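Provenance

Sequences were taken from public entries as deposited. Structures were produced by running a predictor on each sequence independently, with no templates supplied. The record for Cytochrome c oxidase subunit 1 from Effusibacillus consociatus is shown for reference.
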Amino acid sequence: MATAAVAEATRRPSFWRDWVLTVDHKKIGIMYAVTALFFLIFGGLAAVAIRTQLALPGEVVLKPDQFNQFFTMHGTIMIFLFVIPMLTGAFGNYLVPIMIGAIDMAFPRMNALSYWLYLLGGIVLMISPLMGNMPDVGWTAYPPYSIQSKGAGLDLWVTSVHILGLSSILAAVNFIVTIFNMRAPGMTFNRMPLFVWASLVTSFIQLFGTPALAGAVTTLLFDRHLGTVFYEVAAGGDPMLYQHLFWFYSHPAVYVMVIPAMGIVSEIIPVFARKPIFGYHAIAYSSVAIGLLGFIVWAHHMFVAGMQVEAGIPFMVTSLIIAVPTAIKIFNWLSTLWRGSIQLSTPFLFSAFGFMFLFTIGGLTGLFLAAVPIDLHLHDTYFVVGHFHYVVFGGTMMAIIAGLFYWFPKATGRMYNETLGKWSFWIYFVGTNLTFFPMLLVGYKGMQRRVYDYSHTPGLELGNQIATIGSYVISFATILVMVNIVVSLWKGAKAEANQWGAQTLEWTVSSPPPEHNFLEMPVVTSYPYNFGVSAAEKKRFDDDEAVKA
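Predicted structure for Cytochrome c oxidase subunit 1:
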């Protein structure tokens, strides 16, 4: 009997109990990552199909209605099913509890529910081809066309957005409660890792912004099926109401995709520069400033929607001001690198060279679009597409891959292939600029976005063909990253507990971490980026922080 009891106790749990029913935040984070990467494949394939069509003016790679469906699915998948879940679901779930010294999230079962709702929302969207047609209204779903769109595709899109929104709200509440109430002894707000600051701000954005999106798509569904007239102009409705509700969420959602990426970069740069992060408080509080300002810039998407020019001026001003806290981060990262003992590892290349360079291009082009007179000419052109992709793909995707490689040893206990990682960076970097810089040029020449065939407009062929070649290069780089990860899971060298010599709490435990993160409760006595700081300087800083706390 005793032998049987020991065997039962040591028996490995089944896959069902170990993963499907898990409430361990680390396993939930891994499931988010795997699922998001799975959706990335479909979103990427849709993008390649779109670019192939645009490289061949007059040819029929996609029919016009298929083109609309593909760019709708591409935008929706990449934003709602890949970027946001990867940053907030995968990185946030896996890292935040360990970084603050907690054994798990505040509400573990609600955390698991958030993941399964995310998966369900993705499945609902992805079955639309089986129901007759995919949504064809773009990821914004503007009325009046979205009211008139036929088939179940848009209804499934709305249902999916609702489910994903509920998942986001539950996750946001969980993160906020966890960060406020479950920090280890000594973990004051001014000692929190910068990624935790980013996750906290992001959670508040999701909590207050997502209901506006739910209201927009719900009223849209009512107009389609219940005879209401929220957006029917002929009956006294106003389509601009939808745009106000949609962008009140969706512009802050850009920062849901950007602020955690900035948090990842803030963790990586000091480690590989072997220097304390320059301006810790400025970087932390600039995230708060971006989160607050993000809610008062939404109407810069509507300068050409019929809004009075005078009404756009305040939004132009706030859209320009929001560049200030972003610039603070960039200059502080550069100051951290100045005279640092830089190690050119793969995570560093993707974060410092990749994110900072590409995101800066995206930010600078955004300043043009924030100005009303310029936006009147560039709005709805490929200049906007290029700007958006430099920010959300060129910047955020670089940070995501940097984070994958940086924390891969911690999560798996294995090292990735460094040579292959560096090759993937340079291929990504070249491919990203080949794809999106020509979009700025053809947009400046007047090429409208959401255009299926531009053969009637001369001078746009070369730019589109270069952009399409770039999309193939990006696809190849993505395959290299995935191959590197998959192969390294089985054949990678064994990783050390603190592979990079970092100072945040997740690197104080084994790789991978134990079930409840810590064998004993950690006590935090210092700031997490004290690279190269003398004992006297460290004590003086910690004493100052103790006074502030």
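The chain has 18 helices and no strands.
Confidence is low (pLDDT under 50) at residues 4-9.
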